[in-house]
């Protein structure tokens, strides 16, 4: 028995388990990808999820020290090709297999570090944070989807960034109350939580709408092995965005908007039929 392969396969299975426990929506999206893409994308999610847990969950611990140690272990795994942290072992395996850029990893860890401090997000820092926290995650996945096709990756780089940006901004809008009340954060530049109103909300929504439109251009050019899964994520977030857009600012501050499970199923079925009819 090849015990090194067994160790790697077990580590990948751990990342799959983490994804299933933390995000039913993301798991559903991954399952609509070609089966060869499942474990690599689970590995990326596991890495991102664990770093996010450090900065958002473990308030009774020294989070700066935890994140610094996580960063050290990440680069040690990338340099050596081994980690006894199964999340990092599976991640380094996928980074090496698909040539995922270290710049993406560094940008992501930098954005996680920004969450450890109180920030006033001016436009430049806001763009920097979104790039590191969301856009590069899409770019990591795009490396997997393109599987060595550098020309295709470069053609789809900007739409992938815009899709990650749209998803993150929708999250910011949906979670504006919890981010402020639980973490003291308001990500939107120049927005004062106590003065958040319909006019401000409309400006943010116009920016998100432009991101969605730019992202769709890239989705229809993805390899078919990845297209349905990415499109499903797109329509899910678009549905969430439409629900948020219909509500006044006061409602957004008072409740967390969700897409019900039965609606998610309908979105999946609709996306599948569009895919089968080659409309995406």
From TrEMBL:
Keyword tags: Transferase
Superkingdom assignment: Bacteria
InterPro entries noted in UniProt: Isoprenoid_synthase_dom_sf, Squ/phyt_synthse, Squalene/phytoene_synthase_CS, Trans_IPPS_bact-type, Trans_IPPS_HH
Single GO MF descriptor: squalene synthase [NAD(P)H] activity
SUPFAM superfamilies for the chain: Terpenoid synthases (SSF48576)
Gene Ontology terms: biological process: carotenoid biosynthetic process
One Pfam family this sequence matches: SQS_PSY
PANTHER family linked to this entry: BIFUNCTIONAL LYCOPENE CYCLASE/PHYTOENE SYNTHASE
The protein, known as: Phytoene/squalene synthase family protein
Organism per entry: Hymenobacter montanus
